[in-house]
């Protein structure tokens, strides 16, 4: 990549996407461990998508 600002943008987007993915996985795991219900996990993701 020739332009440093563009490189920083791409790297920042990649880090942000990875963080979002880790957050979704961690939230799913925690809800599943607490509620032992895939329905509860689905409801949390539905609420998250609506926000």
SS summary, helix count: 2
**Mean pLDDT over the residues:** 92
Distance between the termini: 35 Å
Low-confidence runs: none
Let me know the number of strands: 0
Strand content: under 5%
C-alpha-based Rg, rounded: 16 Å
Task: Tell me the quaternary state.
Answer: single chain
Helical coverage, percent range: over 70%
Would you list the SSEs in sequence order as H and E? HH
Sheet having the most strands: none
Classify the secondary structure makeup into a structural class. Answer: mainly alpha
Describe this structure in words.
- The mean pLDDT is 92.
- This protein has helices spanning 4-35, 38-50.
- With 51 residues, the chain is mainly α.
List the helices and strands and how they pair.
Elements: H1 4-35, H2 38-50
Helix pairs in contact: 1-2
In a few lines, what is going on in this structure?
The protein has helices at residues 4-35, 38-50. By secondary structure, the protein is an all-alpha fold.
Overview features:
51 residues; mainly alpha; 2 helices; 88% helix; elongated
């Amino acid at each position: 990549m020739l332009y440093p600002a563009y490189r920083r943008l791409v790297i920042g987007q990649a880090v942000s996407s990875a963080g979002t993915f880790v957050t979704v996985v961690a939230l799913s795991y925690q809800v599943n461990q607490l509620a032992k219900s895939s329905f509860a996990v689905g409801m949390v993701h539905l609420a998250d998508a609506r926000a």
